[in-house]
Amino acid sequence: MSDLYTPKPEHKFTFGLWTVGSVGADPFGQPVRPSLTPVQLVHILAEVGAYGVNFHDNDLVPIDATPSERDQTVRDFRKALQETGLVVPMATTNLFSDPIFKDGAFTSNDARVRLYALQKVMRGMDLGAELGAKVYVFWGGREGVESDSTKNPADGIKRMREALDYLCEYNLDQGYGYRFALEAKPNEPRGDIYLPTTGAMLGFIATLAHPDMVGVNPEMAHEHMAGLNFLHAVAQAWEAGKLFHIDLNDQNYVRFDQDWRFGTQNWKQAFFLVKFLEDVGYDGSRHFDAHAFRTEDLEGVKDFAAGCMRTYLIFKEKARQFNQDQEIQSLLKEIQAENTALGDLQGPYTREKAAALKAFVFDRKEIASKGLQYERLDQWVTDLLMGLR
Questions:
Q1: Between β-strands 179-183 and 13-16, what pairing exists: parallel, antiparallel or unpaired?
Q2: pTM of the model
Q3: What is the pLDDT of residues 99-142, one digit of tens each?
Q4: Residue ranges per domain, the chain?
Q5: CATH superfamily of domain region 3-323
Q6: Quick one: angle between helices 267-280 and 374-385, nearest 10?
Q7: CA angle 74-39-132, nearest 5°?
Q8: Is 274 helix (H, G, I), strand (E, B) or coil?
Q9: pLDDT for position 2
Q10: How far apart are the first and last CA of the chain?
Q11: Catalytic residues
């Protein structure tokens, strides 16, 4: 394998315990792989060259563990981290698996469930901070409905706000310094999930008591489930200063959440995403929230994890080639050139400038008559990705 495509710590490639730990079960089939311990999964990730490992609270500590069992589990996990050099950049809370969350966690109609969810997150934050996590992700997997007769959606959003405000205060009080990252998804496992897109999350964040502390964790598959362009969601988050974390995977558009290996399906979308992240200098984790095919054994899981990282690095190199291709860059310069003759009409509003713009006569037919050469540029991208440039 070329060194160019070998993962290194500076690439910040991370995986969740739940990703490489997936046993391959689905709604139609039983597990096909054995369940491995967190310590075993850390060593597998180290073997394939990952930088870090992330976890839900119960990926690491079983929900019914006693305090002594919890402490021993953490000691064993910390030892594995020390042995391998892996770090824990992000942690999160499972607020969706246990039956108590069947109608949501923060948005449940039952105040006891909402309070238990807050308790569980605070304990999860304690655990993450103990192991060095700096980002805390919130995915509201059950925060939604199958029937709008059951809840007022405005109440659901209000309850979400109250929970996030509470936990921001806990973060400040404990001095953890977490950055919270909200993860959107349109549906599954609920019929509809509140705040279903990254854009919706960004709008919600502006209503919080501590919006500076809260950003987003966009996931590729989740935006593709709704038929949206993931790059556009990521760019919006970046432009707003809210791209705190990112989940990389792949899938077919408008399907259930397939969580395939990064780059499995949509090469152009993956390429432009990687190019954007590298061009703007995103310095956070490149987290792969995906699973190996159900066809795979343990060696196949290693192939899956190594493949995610290798594909990212392939697209990173393709992005470098795109940026240095003189023909592509020359065409881009032509396509994106500003019309300097109109410089006096551009820029911030002034009364004089507005009056001049209102009086200016545009030659619509002449402007519209020019071909923009987008077909040529797009084909060159295809050639590049297929190794023909």
A1: unpaired
A2: 0.96
A3: 999 999 999 999 999 999 999 999 999 999 999 999 999 999 99
A4: 3-323, 326-385
A5: Divalent-metal-dependent TIM barrel enzymes (3.20.20.150)
A6: 90
A7: 45
A8: helix
A9: 64
A10: 21
A11: 56, 59
